[in-house]
Design goal:
20% strand; 4 strands; alpha/beta
């Protein structure tokens, strides 16, 4: 079974946006926005394997809503690879 990659989505000027690889520890204390539909279990597994407790602020169904909330500075989005396929380029 292939595991889909999980991606973090930051507001352009977020300090972590410059990193090419994000570890679970990098996200400690950060408000997180995750998708209920496609990545909640893998995200929780990732944090658990790292021995970290994430600060999940929002759990949403729509990836466009997640992107809008990230753009507004409400948190860091954690999305599946499939959800990032049609990201806006602006």
């Amino acid at each position: 079974m292939n595991r889909e990659e999980i991606y973090t989505v930051f507001k352009e000027n977020h300090p972590l946006a410059a990193k090419s690889v994000i570890q679970a520890g990098d996200l400690m204390g950060q408000p997180l926005i995750i998708s209920k539909a496609d990545c909640k279990p893998p995200v929780m597994d990732w944090f658990e394997q790292a021995g970290k407790q994430p600060q999940i602020k929002y759990v949403l169904n729509n990836y466009l809503t997640i992107l809008n909330m990230v753009q507004e500075g409400l948190g860091i989005g954690i999305m599946s690879e499939l959800s990032t396929m049609n990201l806006p380029t602006t």
